[in-house]
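DEPOSITED CHAIN:
***
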Amino acid sequence: MNDAPIGRTVVLNKGFVDSLSKGQLQAYVQVLVDASENHPDADKDVLREELERSFQRIGVEISPVEIDRTAEQLVGEGAAPLTISTNDGTILFEREERSSAEPTQETHADPADPERPLYS
């Protein structure tokens, strides 16, 4: 396994994004980008506190539950691949790096049994 960190994805609600001014949205995305950078101790609680302070600083109110969820999504070591998008598929930010995640193996083999029914 290589040393590159595992990628992260954050999907934002379009309604929330639309409620922000252009400046607030840019600041919010930058907070997420900065938070996704190297956190050597990978401590979710430390990251949550950092997010809370940053959101207060930029004047965007986020519920404690959402801050906690965001910290869980972003915590890790290193500048991993990061995608921030809206739930309608609009990409707000994308950083490509190599990921340390191992390729997944197929968990289900599709048998070539001629008696198997065909579903559409």
Q: What stands out?
A: DSSP finds four helices and three strands in the chain. The helical segments are 14-19, 22-35, 44-58, 64-74. The two ends are 40 Å apart (CA to CA).
